[in-house]
Amino acid sequence: MGVEEYIPDRIAGLSEKRGYTKYRLSQITGMTQTALGNILSQKSIPIILTLERICDAFNITLAQFFSEDGSRLDLTDEQSEILEVWDGLDVKEKEILLSFIRSLKK
């Protein structure tokens, strides 16, 4: 699969996993729905800065975006486990967990 197919497929897959609509992704990234639509329909390929904004919206790095299995690179087993659990939480559960983690830092 070429990059022109991979990028829109990956964005669509990540959006589905996170429950993001094109509208929601445009809000988070600050991009127009038209610009996102052009990327998703393979009418344009994003520049690196645009792709970084998209990755930020999904809380992943460029390396994670392009990793074959979507794995998180350079993490310990414990860090990977925490992120796997995180991915399965809903918004309210994530807020609670973040609040708890922040309280441990103080």
UniProtKB/TrEMBL annotation:
Q: Name one Pfam family in it.
A: HTH_26
Q: Which SUPFAM superfamilies match?
A: lambda repressor-like DNA-binding domains
Sequence ranges assigned to domain HTH cro/C1-type in this UniProt record:
16-65
SMART domains of this UniProt entry?
Answer: HTH_XRE (SM00530)
The name under which this protein is listed is: Helix-turn-helix domain-containing protein
Give the species this sequence originates from.
Answer: Coprococcus intestinihominis
